[in-house]
Amino acid sequence: MPAYRAPRGTRDLLPQDQLAISRLRALGEELAQRYGYHPIATPLFERVEVFERGIGEITDVVEKELFLLAPRDEDGGERWALRPEPTAGIVRAYVQHGMHSWPQPVKVTTTAEMFRYDRPQAGRYRSFWQFDVEAIGDPGPAVDAEIIELADRFYRMAGLDRFTILLNSIGDPVCRPAYVAELTAYYRAHEAELPPTELARLERNPLRILDSKDESTAALNAAAPKVTDRLCDACAEHFAGVVAHLEALGVAYTLEPRLVRGLDYYTRTAFEVFPAGSSGQQSAIGGGGRYDCLVELLGGRPTPGIGFGLGLDRVLLALRDAGSSPEIDAPEPSPVAVVVGSEPGDTVSRLRVATELRAKGLAARAELGTRKLGKQLEAAARDGAHFAVIIGDELAGSHVQVRDLEAGTQRAVAVDDLPRELERATKTHRHGLVEAGPPLAAGEG
Ligand code: AMP
């Protein structure tokens, strides 16, 4: 047992996992750019108030899951927390930098780590990656559909075909209060059937009961009044617009009137995505929605907004579960060449040749150990390199041998021509640098 391990709820992304996450990230960045979203980065931590005001004090994320940083006197006792989600920080930046005077909507994207002090379990980490987009300043409904279609495309391009997009509208400050009052009265009438955790929610945030993970509350929830039956005309029209645009784009969705999302700031459109065959909250691979009150809550002028956060760690889990991750999990490209030498101690020559190849843009490794040539060549083959560049004493160092490790052939190449030769060989015929020259006998070298 090692003395130190990664903190509970976190994990190290070793090269294979980190490569896969990087590819998902690159896919998101490329897609977001294609849809007109510009990159943005905000600090890893913010004043606690940004999250309290933005996300809502009576949510799990703020009540229990914030990673608080210990304040120091010299900072005037400001309280900070690691970001549990990106929207509040981005909206804080929108207000701070006066982005309301930029052309609207302001469309930004970030892919970053989020932190929640949650109870760790499969697929639920205390540190995880989100691919996020935000369109601030557009009331929709067309942009709502555009964003949902972007999410849909992201999953498909990542290799995931079987997933469900749950869609709902949760109203706005005009119609939601009456709905919440009706819902509260409904649950009050059934108090005896509510478990303690849900009873506590009834007092503070009854909408969250609809989101309950508790089995016994499910029947109660099924019979509860539906928010979509209580939308005001403006919200109903907006929701119909979102649906009509999704239909026009051919994006499949499932209406789910019990979807409320965990954060307080949502208005109108809310959506969440689950891989096929799962519905547990810890398997959601993404979610998003409209937050028309958030800019104002954080001190800006009233400005509508919508965005999503897709959980890359969970997308990777879902891809691997479905056995559909060949591209995301493809091995790293092998080096084009490994530079080896007949003089075990001459690391200078090997490193110099490899450095020249790298300067010319070629992926090359140099054998930096002082083992015998045979062992060096074995290691080169294990690296999956196409070529071994063998430095001998040929013509006083003006030439090297280039061995095609697949074909088993080799020939002399002038050192000056080496980068060009290797480049040409990898471009034109990957496994056939050598046109002439006999295959080597086994064990030679
Ligand atoms: P949320 O804002 O909670 O809907 O989160 C958006 C997405 O981030 C979720 O759909 C998940 O894919 C992902 N996510 C949220 N919390 C976690 C977590 N603790 N561990 C891993 N992924 C998470």
Quick rundown:
This protein has 445 residues and is of the alpha+beta class. It is built from 14 helices and 16 strands.
Amino- and carboxy-terminal Cα gap: 43 Å
The total beta strand count reads 16
The percent range for strand residues is 15-25%
Mean pLDDT: 89
Tally of contiguous helical segments: 14
Rg, Cα atoms, Å:
29 Å
Q: What profile does the largest beta sheet have?
A: 8 strands, mixed
Order of helices and strands: HEEHHEEHEEHEHHHHEEEHEHEHEHEEEH
Overview of this structure, please?
The structure is a single chain. The chain has 445 residues and is α+β, with helices and mostly antiparallel strands. It has helices at 15-34, 48-55, 60-63, 87-96, 142-158, 176-188, 196-204, 215-222, 233-249, 294-297, 312-321, 347-359, 373-382, 418-428; strands at 38-39, 45-47, 68-69, 80-82, 106-115, 127-136, 163-169, 254-255, 267-275, 286-290, 305-311, 337-341, 364-366, 387-391, 399-404, 409-414. It has 14 helices and 16 strands. The strands form 3 sheets. The protein has an 8-stranded mixed sheet with strand order 1-5-6-11-10-9-7-8, sandwiched between helices. Strands 13-12-14-15-16 form a 5-stranded mixed sheet, with helices on both faces. Helix 1 packs antiparallel against helix 5 (142-158) and helix 5 packs parallel to helix 9 (233-249). Residues 85, 116, 118, 124-125, 128, 130, 262, 284-287, 309, 311, 313-314 line the site of adenosine monophosphate (AMP).
